Amino acid sequence: MVVPVQPVPLAGEHIKWLGRLKENVERNDWSQPLRPIVAKLVANQPLNLTDGMALYTHADLHEVGALADCVRQARFGSQAFFNSNVHINQTNICVLACKFCAFRRGPKASDAYAMSVQQYLSDLENYAHAVDEVHSVGGLHPDWGVEHYEELISATTERFPHISIKALTAVEIKHLAQKSSISTKEVLQRLKDAGLTSLPGGGAEILDDDVRAQICNGKESSAEYLQIHREAHEVGLPSNCTMLFGTVERLEQRLQHMISLRELNDDTQGFQCFVPYPFLPDRTRLPEAQLATGTEVLRTIAVARLMLNNIPHIKAYRMNIGDHLAELGLQFGADDIDGTVQKESIMHLAGSTTPLDHDRAKLARLIEDAGCQPVQRNTIYSKFEEFTAPVLLPKRSLPMAQG
Known about the structure:
Elements: E1 2-4, H1 14-25, H2 35-42, H3 49-57, H4 61-76, E2 79-83, E3 85-87, H5 117-125, E4 133-136, H6 146-159, E5 164-167, H7 170-180, H8 184-194, H9 209-215, H10 222-234, E6 239-245, H11 251-268, E7 271-278, H12 294-307, E8 313-314, H13 318-321, H14 323-329, E9 336-339, H15 346-349, H16 360-369, E10 373-377, E11 384-387
Parallel strand pairs: 2-9, 2-10, 3-4, 4-5, 6-7, 7-8
Antiparallel strand pairs: 1-11, 10-11
Helix pairs in contact: 1-4, 3-11, 4-12, 6-8, 7-8, 7-10, 10-11
């Protein structure tokens, strides 16, 4: 069952949560290398590249995690968020061939597919009773322009008005603009008018064009990713933002990636959640990748919480890092673990083994085991309800029959 809950205030009330942060950090005796960073955080001053490198190289991982947890608790108390969603990837046919991608297929591949609008609706019908969000990203289909997605989104909105639609990455928006010979901003406005709720933020990889040339040549540039998200925010579409790490990037490039997102959000306040996730190597074509360890994943979550002072939420993306590491991530600065998902292809083809059969009670248990209070949210973090698992009454024992 769910009961209404008032979330800890987010943006616009810095004085309140910064006061809580000051109280939190004063309970700890921080080591000398972290003290200047603590002072900046309490003053709500953005950390710079040097600060980020100090956090990434600090010998005590748990101290970095504890500092990030202080920030999380100052913002949200014990609350940690999830939602009820399903991932439906509308096509795996793509005109690009990014090195890290295990999902993409050419149009002649035996397992290539492209859902019609009716097939998409029929698939969503299987989950519509249990979700309030559909998350849809896919390949760059050579024949689909903006009209196809207007039809898909409007049909989904009409048939399932209770489901919000989080769909299409920046490179998909760019592709639709090119196919339809219109601007990316016009694509975004038309899709919003059709019923699109928000953008998921995928495809950022690392916002460094040298890295992008190695791992995703042909995708949108770093500047284009940022510009498309700026335009989304301008037309009233909030978005998430992401970072794929553990390929060929340096620590400095990860940090500059975070700084670029933070600087954009200084202008737009449209990013609602940052989602860092490590590269999964299975069945992909990037043998030169420098794979992230579990401790590196936790450190990156913590560093993100500390670097991104103007992005409210940090997600421990369990579809990618698994339930056990996501649970630990809630103690390293993350406050969100995504949702029930039900169905997902991209991460699982790349090697994820995270179960897809989670219901809300299982997610709540995961959050509670991390010492947090489970709160169900909607797509755009504007509606929150405390989740309490239903209590199962013990079976009554019947008297034994006589005779």
